Amino acid sequence: DYLQRALAQAPKDADVQFKAALVNAQFGDREKTLDWLKRAVAAGTSAATVRDNPMFDSLRQDPRYQQLVQKK
Q: How much is the pTM?
């Protein structure tokens, strides 16, 4: 699928990683979403971008999410 090809071509690209987090959030996979968010933030996605996206509303009370959005 498109996301897998994008990840294969640019595995360290922050935008691709952020999109992977969005896809996993849509499927309700909390662990994978948090993993991709962690990677995306480490690669340069701003904490504000993560914080401002309503797709991650279900994660807002998770301490791991809170730690990610406070990093930058």
A: 0.88
What is the count of structural domains for the chain?
Answer: 1
pLDDT tens for residues 3-47?
778 777 777 889 999 999 999 999 999 999 999 999 999 999 999
Measured between alpha carbons, how far is 15 from 21 in angstroms, rounded to an integer?
Answer: 10
Note down the domain range covering 41. Answer: 2-70
Token pair, residue 64, equals 């791991």
Cα 11–chain centre separation = 13
Residue 11 is given by DSSP the state T
